[in-house]
Amino acid sequence: MAEEKQPIGGLHFVGRKEELMAAKRSCRTLAGRDVLIISHQGGFYAIDSYCYHAGGDLQSGDIEEIGGKLCIICPNHKFKISLVGGEGLYKASAPREEPRPPHAPQWFSKGVKQRVHVVTETAGGDVYVRLSEEARWRESDFYQGEKGEEERAKAAAAEEEKKKKKKEKKGKM
């Protein structure tokens, strides 16, 4: 980002349309909050950068349509999060229902877990994000604070240790 623009009326400049489309994923810190901006199939989405479940970095998560909703999949534990509403989705079946449904599991919502933000694009090609003003606590809020940062650091260290042990184990074979 070449030029830092100040927020105007709650809108934070996050980049030029063509730059964000080329990058596909961009992280920005807006008013102390880490936000992931995603360009996908001609649309822009903005969500908290860290998964509500365990603080995994969502930047490398796959994007898929799940249960009719465009979702990002956390690369750490495969949690599915709607890009539009921030809902956590899970797959389940109801084997005790009568009459019995087909065996194919269905997707259900856990409710809103991830904070999503509004993206605005100007005619001139500037893209802005307005941070969510929703007062209700969202699970992803935890990973934006100091405690969440500590938890993310612990998880990253544990992941590195796991990789190291796996590498050592391969070397002994």
Short description:
The chain is of the alpha+beta class and 173 residues long. 20% of the residues lie in helices and 36% in strands.
Overview of the structural elements:
There is one protein chain. This protein has 173 residues and is α+β, with helices and mostly antiparallel strands. It has one domain: Rieske [2Fe-2S] iron-sulphur domain (Rieske Iron-sulfur Protein). The chain contains 2 helices and 11 strands. The strands form 2 sheets. Strands 1-11-10-4-3-2 form a 6-stranded antiparallel beta sheet, covered by helices on one side. A 5-stranded antiparallel beta sheet has the order 5-6-7-8-9, with no helix packed on it. Strand 7 and strand 8 form a beta hairpin. The N and C termini lie far apart (47 Å).
